[in-house]
Protein backbone atom coordinates (compact mmCIF):
# COMPACT_ATOMS: atom_id res chain seq x y z
CA UNK A 1 0.00 0.00 0.00
CA UNK A 2 1.08 3.53 -0.67
CA UNK A 3 2.37 5.70 2.16
CA UNK A 4 0.16 8.78 2.57
CA UNK A 5 2.34 10.70 5.01
CA UNK A 6 4.07 13.69 3.47
CA UNK A 7 2.20 13.22 0.20
CA UNK A 8 -0.18 16.16 -0.32
CA UNK A 9 -0.83 14.85 -3.82
CA UNK A 10 -2.44 11.74 -2.29
CA UNK A 11 -4.51 13.65 0.28
CA UNK A 12 -7.81 15.22 -0.70
CA UNK A 13 -10.31 17.05 1.48
CA UNK A 14 -14.00 17.05 0.64
CA UNK A 15 -15.40 20.34 1.87
CA UNK A 16 -18.47 18.64 3.37
CA UNK A 17 -16.12 17.61 6.19
CA UNK A 18 -16.04 21.22 7.39
CA UNK A 19 -19.82 21.67 7.30
CA UNK A 20 -20.03 24.43 4.67
CA UNK A 21 -19.50 27.16 7.24
CA UNK A 22 -17.10 29.37 5.30
CA UNK A 23 -16.58 30.59 1.73
CA UNK A 24 -14.60 28.32 -0.56
CA UNK A 25 -11.66 30.74 -0.67
CA UNK A 26 -11.11 30.51 3.07
CA UNK A 27 -11.76 26.76 3.14
CA UNK A 28 -9.18 26.24 0.39
CA UNK A 29 -6.52 28.11 2.34
CA UNK A 30 -7.20 26.08 5.48
CA UNK A 31 -7.13 22.80 3.55
CA UNK A 32 -3.82 23.62 1.89
CA UNK A 33 -2.27 24.68 5.19
CA UNK A 34 -3.21 21.31 6.70
CA UNK A 35 -1.17 19.40 4.14
CA UNK A 36 -3.84 18.40 1.68
CA UNK A 37 -2.97 18.88 -1.98
CA UNK A 38 -6.47 18.44 -3.35
CA UNK A 39 -9.94 19.68 -2.57
CA UNK A 40 -13.39 18.49 -3.64
CA UNK A 41 -15.92 21.31 -3.34
CA UNK A 42 -19.72 21.16 -3.55
CA UNK A 43 -21.89 23.02 -6.01
CA UNK A 44 -23.49 25.10 -3.27
CA UNK A 45 -20.08 26.68 -2.62
CA UNK A 46 -19.42 27.63 -6.23
CA UNK A 47 -20.99 30.48 -8.16
CA UNK A 48 -21.76 28.36 -11.21
CA UNK A 49 -22.38 31.48 -13.29
CA UNK A 50 -18.74 32.50 -12.69
CA UNK A 51 -16.82 29.36 -11.69
CA UNK A 52 -13.51 30.84 -12.84
CA UNK A 53 -13.45 32.90 -9.63
CA UNK A 54 -13.49 29.82 -7.41
CA UNK A 55 -11.04 28.10 -9.76
CA UNK A 56 -8.64 30.98 -9.29
CA UNK A 57 -9.01 30.96 -5.50
CA UNK A 58 -8.36 27.23 -5.32
CA UNK A 59 -5.27 27.54 -7.54
CA UNK A 60 -4.06 30.49 -5.49
CA UNK A 61 -4.22 28.33 -2.38
CA UNK A 62 -1.94 25.83 -4.11
CA UNK A 63 -4.59 23.14 -4.48
CA UNK A 64 -5.77 20.96 -7.32
CA UNK A 65 -9.28 19.66 -7.63
CA UNK A 66 -10.08 16.15 -6.44
CA UNK A 67 -13.58 16.06 -7.90
CA UNK A 68 -16.78 18.09 -7.91
CA UNK A 69 -19.88 17.23 -5.85
CA UNK A 70 -22.48 16.41 -7.13
CA UNK A 71 -25.20 15.60 -9.64
CA UNK A 72 -28.86 16.35 -9.01
CA UNK A 73 -31.17 13.33 -8.67
CA UNK A 74 -32.21 11.91 -12.02
CA UNK A 75 -35.50 10.10 -11.39
CA UNK A 76 -38.56 12.31 -11.77
CA UNK A 77 -42.28 11.80 -12.09
CA UNK A 78 -42.52 13.58 -15.42
CA UNK A 79 -40.39 14.31 -18.49
CA UNK A 80 -39.89 17.94 -17.56
CA UNK A 81 -38.37 16.92 -14.24
CA UNK A 82 -36.07 14.43 -15.91
CA UNK A 83 -34.94 17.05 -18.45
CA UNK A 84 -34.27 19.59 -15.71
CA UNK A 85 -32.05 17.13 -13.86
CA UNK A 86 -30.07 16.38 -17.00
CA UNK A 87 -29.64 20.08 -17.75
CA UNK A 88 -28.43 20.74 -14.22
CA UNK A 89 -26.01 17.85 -14.39
CA UNK A 90 -24.63 18.98 -17.75
CA UNK A 91 -23.92 22.32 -16.12
CA UNK A 92 -22.12 20.57 -13.26
CA UNK A 93 -19.87 18.87 -15.81
CA UNK A 94 -19.13 22.16 -17.55
CA UNK A 95 -18.32 23.83 -14.25
CA UNK A 96 -16.09 20.91 -13.27
CA UNK A 97 -14.16 21.51 -16.47
CA UNK A 98 -13.61 25.17 -15.58
CA UNK A 99 -12.54 24.22 -12.06
CA UNK A 100 -10.17 21.59 -13.40
CA UNK A 101 -11.92 18.71 -11.66
CA UNK A 102 -11.32 15.35 -13.32
CA UNK A 103 -14.84 14.13 -12.51
CA UNK A 104 -18.25 15.01 -11.14
CA UNK A 105 -19.44 12.70 -8.39
CA UNK A 106 -22.84 11.25 -9.29
CA UNK A 107 -25.28 10.71 -6.45
CA UNK A 108 -27.96 9.43 -8.75
CA UNK A 109 -31.07 9.84 -6.59
CA UNK A 110 -33.69 7.48 -5.25
CA UNK A 111 -37.15 6.67 -6.43
CA UNK A 112 -39.04 9.40 -8.25
CA UNK A 113 -41.22 11.20 -5.69
CA UNK A 114 -44.40 9.33 -6.58
CA UNK A 115 -42.97 6.03 -7.74
CA UNK A 116 -42.32 2.65 -6.13
CA UNK A 117 -41.00 1.16 -9.36
CA UNK A 118 -37.36 0.36 -8.70
CA UNK A 119 -36.53 -0.94 -12.16
CA UNK A 120 -38.25 1.92 -14.00
CA UNK A 121 -36.49 4.53 -11.86
CA UNK A 122 -33.12 2.83 -12.31
CA UNK A 123 -33.71 2.83 -16.05
CA UNK A 124 -34.57 6.52 -15.96
CA UNK A 125 -31.37 7.23 -14.06
CA UNK A 126 -29.32 5.31 -16.61
CA UNK A 127 -30.94 7.23 -19.45
CA UNK A 128 -30.13 10.49 -17.68
CA UNK A 129 -26.51 9.49 -17.22
CA UNK A 130 -26.27 8.45 -20.88
CA UNK A 131 -27.58 11.87 -21.90
CA UNK A 132 -24.46 13.43 -20.37
CA UNK A 133 -22.08 11.62 -22.72
CA UNK A 134 -21.71 14.39 -25.32
CA UNK A 135 -20.83 16.86 -22.56
CA UNK A 136 -18.38 14.41 -21.03
CA UNK A 137 -16.67 13.94 -24.39
CA UNK A 138 -16.60 17.68 -25.07
CA UNK A 139 -15.11 18.55 -21.69
CA UNK A 140 -12.96 15.54 -20.87
CA UNK A 141 -14.63 15.41 -17.45
CA UNK A 142 -15.78 11.99 -16.21
CA UNK A 143 -18.70 10.90 -14.05
CA UNK A 144 -17.74 9.03 -10.87
CA UNK A 145 -20.76 6.87 -10.02
CA UNK A 146 -20.95 6.67 -6.25
CA UNK A 147 -22.84 3.70 -4.82
CA UNK A 148 -24.57 4.91 -1.67
CA UNK A 149 -25.40 2.79 1.35
CA UNK A 150 -28.70 0.93 0.89
CA UNK A 151 -30.20 2.97 3.72
CA UNK A 152 -30.48 5.77 1.12
CA UNK A 153 -32.15 3.72 -1.61
CA UNK A 154 -35.57 5.32 -1.29
CA UNK A 155 -34.64 8.96 -1.25
CA UNK A 156 -31.02 9.47 -2.32
CA UNK A 157 -29.62 6.71 -4.51
CA UNK A 158 -30.82 3.58 -6.25
CA UNK A 159 -27.18 2.77 -6.93
CA UNK A 160 -26.11 0.85 -3.85
CA UNK A 161 -23.19 -1.53 -4.43
CA UNK A 162 -19.83 -1.52 -6.17
CA UNK A 163 -20.94 -4.43 -8.34
CA UNK A 164 -24.01 -2.53 -9.48
CA UNK A 165 -21.85 0.53 -10.26
CA UNK A 166 -19.47 -1.65 -12.26
CA UNK A 167 -22.36 -3.00 -14.32
CA UNK A 168 -23.60 0.52 -14.95
CA UNK A 169 -20.10 1.50 -16.11
CA UNK A 170 -20.06 -1.50 -18.46
CA UNK A 171 -23.34 -0.35 -19.94
CA UNK A 172 -22.59 3.38 -20.10
CA UNK A 173 -18.94 3.17 -21.11
CA UNK A 174 -18.37 -0.34 -22.47
CA UNK A 175 -14.93 0.42 -23.90
CA UNK A 176 -13.80 2.10 -20.66
CA UNK A 177 -13.01 5.35 -22.43
CA UNK A 178 -12.90 7.13 -19.11
CA UNK A 179 -16.40 8.57 -19.39
CA UNK A 180 -17.77 6.74 -16.35
CA UNK A 181 -16.00 5.29 -13.32
CA UNK A 182 -16.74 4.52 -9.69
CA UNK A 183 -16.36 6.54 -6.49
CA UNK A 184 -15.82 4.04 -3.68
CA UNK A 185 -16.80 5.48 -0.30
CA UNK A 186 -15.87 3.20 2.58
CA UNK A 187 -18.91 4.38 4.55
CA UNK A 188 -21.28 3.15 1.88
CA UNK A 189 -19.69 -0.18 0.96
CA UNK A 190 -17.85 -1.52 4.04
CA UNK A 191 -20.61 -3.98 5.00
CA UNK A 192 -20.87 -5.65 1.57
CA UNK A 193 -20.04 -9.38 1.67
CA UNK A 194 -19.27 -9.16 -2.07
CA UNK A 195 -16.95 -6.15 -1.75
CA UNK A 196 -13.66 -7.90 -2.37
CA UNK A 197 -14.92 -9.74 -5.43
CA UNK A 198 -16.67 -6.66 -6.75
CA UNK A 199 -13.57 -4.46 -6.37
CA UNK A 200 -11.57 -7.15 -8.15
CA UNK A 201 -13.92 -7.03 -11.11
CA UNK A 202 -13.99 -3.20 -10.96
CA UNK A 203 -10.22 -2.90 -11.37
CA UNK A 204 -9.44 0.02 -13.67
CA UNK A 205 -12.82 1.62 -13.04
CA UNK A 206 -12.29 3.25 -9.63
CA UNK A 207 -11.89 7.03 -9.85
CA UNK A 208 -12.14 7.98 -6.19
CA UNK A 209 -11.72 6.57 -2.70
CA UNK A 210 -13.60 8.33 0.10
CA UNK A 211 -13.02 7.67 3.78
CA UNK A 212 -14.74 8.39 7.07
CA UNK A 213 -16.06 5.85 9.58
CA UNK A 214 -19.27 4.06 10.53
CA UNK A 215 -20.11 4.49 14.21
CA UNK A 216 -21.32 1.27 15.82
CA UNK A 217 -24.41 2.99 17.20
CA UNK A 218 -25.15 5.40 14.38
CA UNK A 219 -27.76 7.94 15.41
CA UNK A 220 -28.47 9.28 11.94
CA UNK A 221 -27.13 7.50 8.85
CA UNK A 222 -26.89 10.81 6.97
CA UNK A 223 -25.26 13.19 9.43
CA UNK A 224 -23.64 11.05 12.13
CA UNK A 225 -20.60 9.80 10.25
CA UNK A 226 -17.43 9.24 12.19
CA UNK A 227 -13.82 10.33 12.01
CA UNK A 228 -11.50 7.65 10.63
CA UNK A 229 -10.58 5.30 13.46
CA UNK A 230 -13.57 6.11 15.66
CA UNK A 231 -15.89 3.52 14.10
CA UNK A 232 -15.86 -0.02 12.80
CA UNK A 233 -14.64 0.16 9.20
CA UNK A 234 -11.44 -1.68 8.27
CA UNK A 235 -10.25 1.31 6.26
CA UNK A 236 -6.83 -0.15 5.52
CA UNK A 237 -8.41 -3.28 4.05
CA UNK A 238 -10.60 -1.27 1.70
CA UNK A 239 -7.75 0.95 0.55
CA UNK A 240 -5.60 -2.11 -0.09
CA UNK A 241 -8.33 -3.71 -2.20
CA UNK A 242 -8.81 -0.51 -4.22
CA UNK A 243 -5.08 -0.03 -4.73
CA UNK A 244 -4.67 -3.65 -5.76
CA UNK A 245 -7.08 -2.83 -8.57
CA UNK A 246 -4.71 -0.13 -9.80
CA UNK A 247 -6.19 2.95 -8.16
CA UNK A 248 -3.57 5.68 -8.04
CA UNK A 249 -5.60 8.72 -7.04
CA UNK A 250 -5.77 10.57 -3.76
CA UNK A 251 -7.59 9.39 -0.67
CA UNK A 252 -10.43 11.80 0.05
CA UNK A 253 -11.86 12.55 3.48
CA UNK A 254 -15.62 13.19 3.52
CA UNK A 255 -17.33 13.34 6.92
CA UNK A 256 -20.92 14.48 7.44
CA UNK A 257 -21.09 15.02 11.18
CA UNK A 258 -23.63 17.62 12.23
CA UNK A 259 -23.36 17.12 15.97
CA UNK A 260 -19.63 16.49 16.39
CA UNK A 261 -17.14 17.56 13.73
CA UNK A 262 -19.20 20.33 12.15
CA UNK A 263 -19.19 22.02 15.54
CA UNK A 264 -15.41 21.94 15.95
CA UNK A 265 -12.89 24.49 14.83
CA UNK A 266 -12.13 23.85 11.13
CA UNK A 267 -8.36 23.74 11.65
CA UNK A 268 -8.78 21.21 14.47
CA UNK A 269 -10.92 19.06 12.19
CA UNK A 270 -8.32 19.22 9.44
CA UNK A 271 -5.46 18.42 11.82
CA UNK A 272 -7.37 15.41 13.14
CA UNK A 273 -8.15 14.17 9.65
CA UNK A 274 -4.54 14.57 8.65
CA UNK A 275 -3.21 12.68 11.66
CA UNK A 276 -5.71 9.85 11.17
CA UNK A 277 -4.76 9.52 7.52
CA UNK A 278 -1.16 8.90 8.53
CA UNK A 279 -1.98 5.95 10.74
CA UNK A 280 -5.52 4.66 10.32
CA UNK A 281 -6.56 4.84 6.69
CA UNK B 1 -49.87 -15.46 -6.82
CA UNK B 2 -51.88 -16.93 -4.00
CA UNK B 3 -54.98 -15.13 -2.72
CA UNK B 4 -54.53 -14.24 0.95
CA UNK B 5 -58.11 -13.10 1.64
CA UNK B 6 -60.07 -15.53 3.75
CA UNK B 7 -57.03 -17.72 4.30
CA UNK B 8 -56.03 -17.58 7.98
CA UNK B 9 -53.54 -20.37 7.28
CA UNK B 10 -51.61 -17.96 5.01
CA UNK B 11 -51.72 -15.02 7.44
CA UNK B 12 -49.23 -14.80 10.27
CA UNK B 13 -48.81 -12.03 12.84
CA UNK B 14 -45.44 -11.33 14.39
CA UNK B 15 -46.10 -10.05 17.89
CA UNK B 16 -43.53 -7.26 17.51
CA UNK B 17 -46.20 -5.50 15.44
CA UNK B 18 -48.18 -4.87 18.62
CA UNK B 19 -45.22 -3.51 20.56
CA UNK B 20 -45.07 -6.13 23.34
CA UNK B 21 -47.65 -4.34 25.45
CA UNK B 22 -49.72 -7.32 26.60
CA UNK B 23 -49.15 -10.90 27.71
CA UNK B 24 -48.94 -13.52 24.98
CA UNK B 25 -52.28 -15.08 25.99
CA UNK B 26 -54.16 -11.86 25.31
CA UNK B 27 -52.16 -11.11 22.16
CA UNK B 28 -52.95 -14.56 20.81
CA UNK B 29 -56.68 -14.06 21.30
CA UNK B 30 -56.59 -10.69 19.52
CA UNK B 31 -54.55 -12.09 16.63
CA UNK B 32 -56.91 -15.02 16.13
CA UNK B 33 -59.95 -12.76 16.25
CA UNK B 34 -58.47 -10.62 13.48
CA UNK B 35 -58.33 -13.54 11.06
CA UNK B 36 -54.72 -14.59 11.41
CA UNK B 37 -54.14 -18.31 11.71
CA UNK B 38 -50.54 -18.13 12.83
CA UNK B 39 -48.49 -16.17 15.32
CA UNK B 40 -44.76 -15.64 15.72
CA UNK B 41 -43.90 -14.69 19.32
CA UNK B 42 -40.65 -13.37 20.74
CA UNK B 43 -38.61 -14.95 23.47
CA UNK B 44 -39.24 -12.07 25.87
CA UNK B 45 -42.93 -13.02 25.85
CA UNK B 46 -42.39 -16.68 26.67
CA UNK B 47 -41.44 -18.15 30.03
CA UNK B 48 -38.73 -20.36 28.60
CA UNK B 49 -38.59 -22.38 31.81
CA UNK B 50 -42.23 -23.39 31.21
CA UNK B 51 -42.94 -22.89 27.51
CA UNK B 52 -45.79 -25.42 27.57
CA UNK B 53 -47.97 -22.77 29.22
CA UNK B 54 -47.62 -20.38 26.29
CA UNK B 55 -47.98 -23.28 23.87
CA UNK B 56 -51.29 -24.16 25.49
CA UNK B 57 -52.53 -20.57 25.39
CA UNK B 58 -51.67 -20.21 21.71
CA UNK B 59 -53.41 -23.50 20.86
CA UNK B 60 -56.43 -22.47 22.94
CA UNK B 61 -56.69 -19.31 20.83
CA UNK B 62 -56.87 -21.49 17.75
CA UNK B 63 -53.48 -20.47 16.40
CA UNK B 64 -50.48 -22.32 15.08
CA UNK B 65 -46.94 -21.04 15.34
CA UNK B 66 -45.38 -19.21 12.41
CA UNK B 67 -41.87 -19.16 13.85
CA UNK B 68 -40.06 -18.13 17.01
CA UNK B 69 -38.01 -14.92 17.38
CA UNK B 70 -35.05 -14.96 17.78
CA UNK B 71 -31.44 -16.03 18.32
CA UNK B 72 -28.99 -14.10 20.45
CA UNK B 73 -26.05 -12.51 18.64
CA UNK B 74 -23.26 -14.98 17.98
CA UNK B 75 -20.11 -12.89 17.64
CA UNK B 76 -18.31 -12.28 20.93
CA UNK B 77 -14.91 -11.03 22.02
CA UNK B 78 -14.07 -14.17 23.96
CA UNK B 79 -14.85 -17.87 23.91
CA UNK B 80 -17.09 -17.67 26.96
CA UNK B 81 -19.30 -15.14 25.21
CA UNK B 82 -19.50 -17.28 22.09
CA UNK B 83 -20.42 -20.34 24.17
CA UNK B 84 -23.11 -18.43 26.03
CA UNK B 85 -24.72 -17.34 22.76
CA UNK B 86 -24.75 -20.89 21.46
CA UNK B 87 -26.27 -22.18 24.70
CA UNK B 88 -28.98 -19.55 24.58
CA UNK B 89 -29.73 -20.31 20.98
CA UNK B 90 -29.94 -24.05 21.66
CA UNK B 91 -32.50 -23.25 24.30
CA UNK B 92 -34.46 -21.16 21.78
CA UNK B 93 -34.59 -24.16 19.46
CA UNK B 94 -35.79 -26.44 22.26
CA UNK B 95 -38.47 -23.95 23.25
CA UNK B 96 -39.54 -23.61 19.62
CA UNK B 97 -40.04 -27.37 19.56
CA UNK B 98 -42.32 -27.22 22.62
CA UNK B 99 -44.26 -24.33 21.10
CA UNK B 100 -44.62 -26.19 17.83
CA UNK B 101 -42.75 -23.55 15.81
CA UNK B 102 -41.22 -24.91 12.61
CA UNK B 103 -38.18 -22.62 12.89
CA UNK B 104 -36.30 -20.13 15.00
CA UNK B 105 -35.52 -16.87 13.23
CA UNK B 106 -31.80 -16.15 13.36
CA UNK B 107 -30.75 -12.52 13.70
CA UNK B 108 -27.10 -13.40 13.78
CA UNK B 109 -25.60 -10.26 15.30
CA UNK B 110 -23.08 -7.72 14.13
CA UNK B 111 -19.41 -7.30 14.90
CA UNK B 112 -18.19 -8.54 18.27
CA UNK B 113 -18.17 -5.55 20.65
CA UNK B 114 -14.46 -4.88 20.31
CA UNK B 115 -13.85 -6.11 16.78
CA UNK B 116 -13.70 -4.52 13.35
CA UNK B 117 -12.85 -7.80 11.64
CA UNK B 118 -15.79 -8.56 9.37
CA UNK B 119 -14.54 -11.88 8.08
CA UNK B 120 -13.51 -13.21 11.50
CA UNK B 121 -16.87 -12.26 13.01
CA UNK B 122 -18.78 -13.81 10.12
CA UNK B 123 -16.76 -16.98 10.59
CA UNK B 124 -17.56 -17.00 14.29
CA UNK B 125 -21.24 -16.63 13.50
CA UNK B 126 -21.12 -19.53 11.06
CA UNK B 127 -19.38 -21.69 13.66
CA UNK B 128 -22.07 -20.80 16.19
CA UNK B 129 -24.82 -21.70 13.76
CA UNK B 130 -23.11 -24.99 12.93
CA UNK B 131 -22.97 -25.82 16.65
CA UNK B 132 -26.79 -25.86 16.68
CA UNK B 133 -27.05 -28.72 14.20
CA UNK B 134 -27.38 -31.56 16.74
CA UNK B 135 -30.22 -29.70 18.46
CA UNK B 136 -31.88 -28.98 15.12
CA UNK B 137 -31.72 -32.67 14.20
CA UNK B 138 -32.98 -33.76 17.61
CA UNK B 139 -35.94 -31.39 17.59
CA UNK B 140 -36.85 -31.14 13.92
CA UNK B 141 -36.82 -27.34 14.27
CA UNK B 142 -35.03 -25.35 11.55
CA UNK B 143 -33.10 -22.09 11.63
CA UNK B 144 -34.44 -19.36 9.35
CA UNK B 145 -31.47 -17.13 8.57
CA UNK B 146 -32.77 -13.60 8.23
CA UNK B 147 -30.64 -11.19 6.22
CA UNK B 148 -30.99 -7.77 7.83
CA UNK B 149 -30.70 -4.45 6.05
CA UNK B 150 -27.06 -3.34 5.74
CA UNK B 151 -27.80 -0.41 8.04
CA UNK B 152 -27.63 -2.98 10.86
CA UNK B 153 -24.32 -4.56 9.85
CA UNK B 154 -22.27 -3.10 12.70
CA UNK B 155 -24.51 -3.86 15.63
CA UNK B 156 -27.25 -6.35 14.67
CA UNK B 157 -26.39 -8.55 11.72
CA UNK B 158 -23.46 -9.30 9.48
CA UNK B 159 -25.84 -11.28 7.29
CA UNK B 160 -27.22 -8.67 4.90
CA UNK B 161 -28.42 -10.08 1.58
CA UNK B 162 -30.47 -13.01 0.31
CA UNK B 163 -27.52 -14.20 -1.74
CA UNK B 164 -25.29 -14.24 1.34
CA UNK B 165 -27.95 -16.17 3.26
CA UNK B 166 -28.22 -18.69 0.43
CA UNK B 167 -24.46 -19.23 0.51
CA UNK B 168 -24.58 -19.72 4.25
CA UNK B 169 -27.36 -22.29 3.79
CA UNK B 170 -25.24 -24.09 1.20
CA UNK B 171 -22.38 -24.27 3.67
CA UNK B 172 -24.41 -25.14 6.77
CA UNK B 173 -26.91 -27.50 5.14
CA UNK B 174 -25.43 -28.55 1.80
CA UNK B 175 -27.97 -31.32 1.16
CA UNK B 176 -30.89 -29.01 2.03
CA UNK B 177 -32.10 -31.34 4.76
CA UNK B 178 -34.25 -28.56 6.13
CA UNK B 179 -31.85 -27.59 8.89
CA UNK B 180 -31.27 -24.07 7.60
CA UNK B 181 -33.38 -21.84 5.38
CA UNK B 182 -33.97 -18.15 4.77
CA UNK B 183 -36.40 -15.62 6.25
CA UNK B 184 -36.98 -12.99 3.57
CA UNK B 185 -38.15 -9.70 5.09
CA UNK B 186 -39.18 -7.18 2.45
CA UNK B 187 -37.97 -4.31 4.65
CA UNK B 188 -34.44 -5.65 4.65
CA UNK B 189 -34.05 -6.73 1.03
CA UNK B 190 -36.27 -4.51 -1.13
CA UNK B 191 -33.42 -2.25 -2.32
CA UNK B 192 -31.14 -5.07 -3.50
CA UNK B 193 -30.39 -4.87 -7.24
CA UNK B 194 -29.57 -8.60 -7.11
CA UNK B 195 -32.79 -9.58 -5.36
CA UNK B 196 -34.55 -11.25 -8.26
CA UNK B 197 -31.53 -13.32 -9.23
CA UNK B 198 -30.78 -14.19 -5.61
CA UNK B 199 -34.33 -15.33 -4.91
CA UNK B 200 -34.20 -17.43 -8.07
CA UNK B 201 -31.10 -19.20 -6.81
CA UNK B 202 -32.62 -19.50 -3.31
CA UNK B 203 -35.67 -21.39 -4.56
CA UNK B 204 -36.52 -24.15 -2.09
CA UNK B 205 -34.65 -22.43 0.73
CA UNK B 206 -37.12 -19.73 1.77
CA UNK B 207 -38.87 -20.53 5.07
CA UNK B 208 -40.56 -17.22 5.81
CA UNK B 209 -41.76 -14.03 4.14
CA UNK B 210 -42.07 -10.95 6.34
CA UNK B 211 -43.80 -7.76 5.26
CA UNK B 212 -44.03 -4.15 6.43
CA UNK B 213 -42.96 -1.05 4.50
CA UNK B 214 -40.01 1.32 4.12
CA UNK B 215 -41.00 4.94 4.64
CA UNK B 216 -39.37 7.27 2.10
CA UNK B 217 -38.09 9.55 4.86
CA UNK B 218 -37.30 6.98 7.51
CA UNK B 219 -36.58 8.67 10.85
CA UNK B 220 -35.10 5.63 12.57
CA UNK B 221 -34.23 2.51 10.59
CA UNK B 222 -34.97 0.31 13.62
CA UNK B 223 -38.27 1.60 14.96
CA UNK B 224 -39.85 3.66 12.19
CA UNK B 225 -41.08 0.89 9.91
CA UNK B 226 -44.25 1.48 7.98
CA UNK B 227 -47.59 -0.25 7.50
CA UNK B 228 -47.84 -2.13 4.21
CA UNK B 229 -48.82 0.34 1.53
CA UNK B 230 -47.60 3.45 3.35
CA UNK B 231 -44.03 3.25 2.03
CA UNK B 232 -42.11 2.50 -1.13
CA UNK B 233 -41.69 -1.28 -1.24
CA UNK B 234 -43.21 -3.18 -4.16
CA UNK B 235 -44.56 -5.85 -1.82
CA UNK B 236 -46.47 -7.72 -4.50
CA UNK B 237 -43.34 -8.06 -6.60
CA UNK B 238 -41.37 -9.55 -3.73
CA UNK B 239 -44.13 -11.98 -2.80
CA UNK B 240 -44.41 -13.07 -6.42
CA UNK B 241 -40.66 -13.73 -6.64
CA UNK B 242 -40.71 -15.73 -3.41
CA UNK B 243 -43.74 -17.75 -4.45
CA UNK B 244 -42.22 -18.43 -7.86
CA UNK B 245 -39.43 -20.12 -5.95
CA UNK B 246 -41.92 -22.50 -4.39
CA UNK B 247 -42.61 -20.78 -1.09
CA UNK B 248 -45.91 -22.04 0.30
CA UNK B 249 -45.87 -20.68 3.83
CA UNK B 250 -47.80 -17.84 5.40
CA UNK B 251 -47.09 -14.16 4.88
CA UNK B 252 -46.03 -12.67 8.20
CA UNK B 253 -46.57 -9.06 9.26
CA UNK B 254 -43.76 -7.61 11.38
CA UNK B 255 -43.80 -3.85 12.00
CA UNK B 256 -41.52 -2.08 14.47
CA UNK B 257 -43.13 1.33 14.81
CA UNK B 258 -42.52 2.98 18.15
CA UNK B 259 -44.08 6.34 17.37
CA UNK B 260 -47.05 5.30 15.23
CA UNK B 261 -48.43 1.77 15.34
CA UNK B 262 -47.19 0.81 18.80
CA UNK B 263 -49.29 3.69 20.14
CA UNK B 264 -52.51 2.59 18.48
CA UNK B 265 -55.13 0.25 19.84
CA UNK B 266 -53.99 -3.33 19.17
CA UNK B 267 -57.24 -4.35 17.51
CA UNK B 268 -57.05 -1.33 15.19
CA UNK B 269 -53.50 -2.29 14.26
CA UNK B 270 -54.59 -5.84 13.51
CA UNK B 271 -57.58 -4.73 11.45
CA UNK B 272 -55.36 -2.41 9.43
CA UNK B 273 -52.78 -5.13 8.83
CA UNK B 274 -55.50 -7.52 7.77
CA UNK B 275 -57.06 -5.08 5.32
CA UNK B 276 -53.70 -4.20 3.80
CA UNK B 277 -52.84 -7.87 3.34
CA UNK B 278 -55.96 -8.31 1.25
CA UNK B 279 -55.01 -5.61 -1.23
CA UNK B 280 -51.43 -4.44 -0.94
CA UNK B 281 -49.17 -7.37 -0.13
UniProtKB/TrEMBL annotation, chains A, B:
Keywords: Isomerase, Kinase, Transferase. It comes from the Bacteria. The keyword Transcription does not apply. InterPro entries: IolE/XylAMocC-like (IPR050312), Xyl_isomerase-like_sf (IPR036237), Xyl_isomerase-like_TIM-brl (IPR013022). GO terms for molecular function: isomerase activity; kinase activity. SUPFAM superfamilies: Xylose isomerase-like. Pfam families: AP_endonuc_2 (PF01261). Residues 29-267 form the Xylose isomerase-like TIM barrel domain. The keyword Thylakoid does not apply. This is Sugar phosphate isomerase/epimerase. It comes from Verminephrobacter aporrectodeae subsp. tuberculatae.
Amino acid sequence: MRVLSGRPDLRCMNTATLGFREPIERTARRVAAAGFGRITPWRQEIDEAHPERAAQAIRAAGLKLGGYCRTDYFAADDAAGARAAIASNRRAVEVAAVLGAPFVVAVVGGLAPNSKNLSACREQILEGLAALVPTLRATGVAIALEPLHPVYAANRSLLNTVEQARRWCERLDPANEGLFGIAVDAYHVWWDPELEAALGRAAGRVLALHVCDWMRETKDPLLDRGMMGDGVIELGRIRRLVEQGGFGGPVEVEIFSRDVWWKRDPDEVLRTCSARMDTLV
